[in-house]
Amino acid sequence: MSSYLEKYRLYFITKSLNSKESNSAKARGYIDIFMEDNDWLIEGININFDYLEIDQYTTPSWFIKKNINFKTREKLFSKINLKQEKRPSTSSNKTIILNKEQINIVNKFFNEDYFSNNKTIKNIISILKGNNAGGSLKNPKNAEMIIDLKYKRNIYKYEKYKFNLFMVLDLIIKNQKHEKEIRHENYKIYNENLNEKDYYDFLDKFFNETNFSYNSNFKNFKELIEIANIQNKNEVENNIWINKCEELKKLLGSFKNFRENYIDNKINTLRAKASQERINVFEFENSYRKRNFETQNAHIYDVKYIRQDLEEFTIKERKKEPKITNEKIANKFEFNEILSKVCNKNNLLNLSLEMHWEFDKNSFTYQENGKIKILKQDFILEEYEKCFSEIPNNKLNKEMINFIIQRNQKRQNK
């Protein structure tokens, strides 16, 4: 079964690129972020540099310790025919402007190797510079990789958060060793290159508290973005905000761990099972079968809403019992009752690939009486698809009707 993701394109620039005095590494480009529309976790990322100067000089101690940054640079440099050299002094730089072919190699390295091994956006600047990035929590304007507002739609909205977004973004990226496939054909993306969402749309997910899927995870990340970008903090304030940041990081990290290991893993297992179920809600005439259309099992009540319900249940249980273990939550009857909806046969319809795609896009739905309801004017039911126009009475039971009601309520509130 496909997952339908939205793409957010965040343009970035290094602070050094705008400084005539800087001899440090420089970069410009964008990062594409892939997420489900109602989710706070990032499924996957792709980076694209369109300009890049990389520093050949490396901190001397890295040659001795051979830390992970040194090894990563060594691997990258071997692909673009460069060699690391010891930095003669802290102020020394030896930057090389990469050509288009080298930049393409760098892009491929970060997307197919670096991110797939769960390395961070925050650390990219250290790989390019050959030294440790400076801290920017106390003074966000010290951030070395920031949002490029050249592409802004609104002069003021969210502008103050451009400095340290990349410092905290890694906290909500899912394990990329598991999510590596999202960059390939098994995921479909709603918006194509000419219509991608942007920095403002991305932050709207976390700052718009009227969003129907908004919960404490969205709120915690919003607070983290705000704190990380507070300007002119004195020493006392800085310590307070550092402690608050650590508290929020812990909360987000704990829930992210639960999501990946207890919610998402279980959903993926049941989703695979659901895709193999023999569902025969719709019977096809011979003329339809002759067209050799493949069918898929489509969820009436979407998996993303089931996941959302599991999150809400978990948040509620943690509020009632702050020290409750993940295992105890995952073993609760209510948790598993919600989870079972993923492979409940009465929550599945055997639709053609095209109809499944349109159903997920909310081009149409079904009513409680089983009849189709067209929701988008540009969606037209073809003659050969009219077998999907009504769920047969002998298949439309109370449980299926309940799933239809739940689906329509959620999607109406979207």
Provide key terms for this protein.
single chain; about 425 residues; alpha/beta; 2 domains; 7-stranded mixed β-sheet; two-stranded parallel ribbon; 14 helices; elongated
Question: Would you mind describing this structure in some detail?
Answer:
It is a single chain. By secondary structure, the protein is α/β, with parallel strands linked by helices. The protein folds into two domains: 5-197, no CATH class; 279-413, no CATH class. The protein contains 14 helices and 13 strands. The strands form four sheets. Strands 1, 2, 3, 6, 7, 8 and 9 form a seven-stranded mixed sheet that branches. A two-stranded parallel ribbon has the order 4-5. Strands 10-11 form a two-stranded antiparallel sheet. Strand 12 and strand 13 form a beta hairpin. Helix 8 (235-276) crosses helix 10 and helix 10 runs antiparallel to helix 12. It is elongated, with a radius of gyration of 25 Å. The two termini are 22 Å apart. Mean pLDDT is 89; it is low at 182-186.
- Tally of separate helices: 14
Oligomer: single chain
Molecular shape: elongated
Residue-averaged pLDDT: 89
Number of domains: 2
Percent of residues in helical segments?
40-55%
- How many beta-strand segments? 13
- The proportion of residues in beta strands is 15-25%
Order of helices and strands: EEEEHHEEHHEHEEHHHHEHHHEHEEH
Separation of termini? 22 Å
Show unreliable segments.
Answer: 182-186
Gyration radius from CA atoms, angstroms: 25 Å
SS-derived structural category: alpha/beta
Largest sheet: 7 strands, mixed
